[in-house]
Design goal:
Layout lengths: L1 E8 L1 E7 L2 H17 L16 E3 L4 H4 L4 H12 L6 E16 L5 E4 L8 E9 L19 E4 L10 E4 L5 E6 L3 E4 L8 E14 L8
């Protein structure tokens, strides 16, 4: 796991490059479970317009043999601009699922949550099509299959959105309330991504004592 860069557009998004070994282990396990019919259908609890979504929290930790995921999350928290009057008690994975997005499917604009309101959402790219397909027009940047991150900012001369072209191994971590969506693509292939929610369990620290 390598921290690649930090994106600033009202809120911070951290991008990490995960090892090829981790990506392969997750893909191999997911492919095996699909082949053997040992899947947990996650569609009923998710907002995506995607037919194949699988809950994988039950086996994700054993795939992450080098603890790349918790290292990335801890680094993200360490870089976050948090209210110093609160102390971090622990970080817990609230949920984890894989989306196997196919042609014409998409994810609506949404945000994440867990058992608490404060936390990190994330997207890890595991597999992408060879070609995103022909764009309907060439009047703007390519959008097919892209992830759009929309930070909580706005107004003149500000940058509210960041368009992500999926690359296998890229792992984006961002606040729960940062809205995002995924555009459909055209043609064969699977756009496979892993989403994980991390609850930040915070407690109020002791009051600062002043000498009068």
């Amino acid at each position: 796991m390598k921290h690649d860069r930090t994106l600033h557009f009202g809120q911070e998004v951290h991008l990490y490059t995960m090892s090829k070994g981790l990506i392969k282990r997750i893909n191999d396990r997911m492919d095996k479970d699909i082949k053997e019919g040992k899947i947990i259908d996650a569609r009923e609890s998710l907002s995506a317009k995607i037919q194949h979504e699988y809950r994988i929290l039950q086996w994700l930790p054993e795939m992450d043999t080098d603890e790349e995921i918790p290292k990335a999350v801890k680094h993200t928290y360490g870089e976050a601009n948090v209210d110093k009057s609160f102390l971090l008690r622990d970080i817990q994975i609230n949920d984890a699922w894989i989306n196997d997005q196919r042609e014409h499917e998409y994810q609506v604009l949404h945000k994440h949550s867990g058992n608490v309101q404060v936390g990190f959402a994330s997207v890890m790219f595991l597999r992408v099509p060879d070609d995103w397909g022909e764009e309907f027009t060439e009047t703007s940047a390519p959008h097919n299959g892209r992830l759009s991150l929309a930070g909580n900012c706005g107004g003149l001369f500000s940058v509210k959105q960041y368009l992500v072209t999926p690359q296998v191994g890229d792992f984006y971590i961002f606040p729960y309330d940062l809205e995002h969506c995924v555009y459909p693509f055209r043609g064969p292939g699977i756009r496979r991504s892993l989403s994980i929610n991390f609850d930040l369990n915070m407690i109020k620290g002791p009051p600062v004592k002043y000498k009068w």
